[in-house]
Amino acid sequence: MGHLQGGIAADLLLPAARERFEKIFAVAARKSVFTWLSTAHTQADVVLIDDSVRADALGHVPPCVVCLCKNNGSARSASPWQTQLSGDYTVADVIDVLDRAAVFLLDWQARPAAQRPAAAPVASAAPALPGVSLYHLGSWVSMGVPFNNPQSLRALALLAQGAVSAHQISQHSGLEPERTSALLDELQRRNVLITSLRTASSAAHRTPPRPRPAAPISLVQRLSRWLGTASGQNA
């Protein structure tokens, strides 16, 4: 998959469902942070299914599965990221799904080679010193220009996992310090950024975190909760 580009497949949907999705997708894809290309389900990053296809019978495990299913039993999949679209989904719902899949794919690609746990980007960075401001994303937001790039999305994914310093954000995301500051300023302006100060006392008494098993779905579940209400999706 290319930089900020992903493949999506609707070829497994029944004709009527596929026609409706492709009509809405044509509008939604233009507003997503990724460039989405239609492809065969055997090569796609995101595969759509309906009640005519069981997720456990796909023959392979795509990274992301989106289910347009009335029967909840059909939605179970071994894919690391999965969600559902309700029968009356809108353009806004599809945009949310595409952006959530994009964030997952960027975060997924950033760590599989070393098979790090989900929290590894924070743990591997140098600990924040006392007196350093820490930042945490309180709710998910879709960012436009100039923040609709892979580096900014990786920064947002890191901020969604826990409180981190500006230096840690730059290290993990690849953003230059001034771009990190601009991103934090924009998040502050939107009232979605939680800021705290790491003190000497908190540093001295902080219990070192225990290693956690790999769980890439945890970030997606958090983003799903934030976006679920706005998109009106079924859990």
Structural summary, described in words:
It is a single chain. Mean pLDDT is 75; it is low at 112-126, 201-218 and 228-235. The chain has eight helices and seven strands. It has helices spanning 15-28, 91-109, 120-124, 150-161, 166-173, 177-189, 200-205, 217-231; strands at residues 5-9, 35-38, 46-50, 64-68, 81-84, 133-137, 193-197. Helix content is 39%, strand content 14%. The strands form two sheets. A five-stranded parallel beta sheet has the order 2-1-3-4-5. The protein has a two-stranded antiparallel ribbon with strand order 6-7. The two termini are 29 Å apart. Helix 1 links the parallel strand 1 (5-9) and strand 2 (35-38). It has 235 residues and is an alpha/beta fold.
Please give a handful of descriptors for the protein shown.
235 residues; alpha/beta; disordered C terminus
Please state the CA-atom Rg, rounded to the nearest Å: 19 Å
| Run of helices and strands | EHEEEEHHEHHHEHH
Q: Strand tally, please?
A: 7
Query: Can you give the helix content as a percent range?
Result: 25-40%
Structural class: alpha/beta
Low-confidence stretches: 112-126, 201-218, 228-235
β-strand amount: 5-15%
Give the overall form: elongated
Distance between the termini: 29 Å
Structure at a glance:
This protein has 235 residues and is of the alpha/beta class.
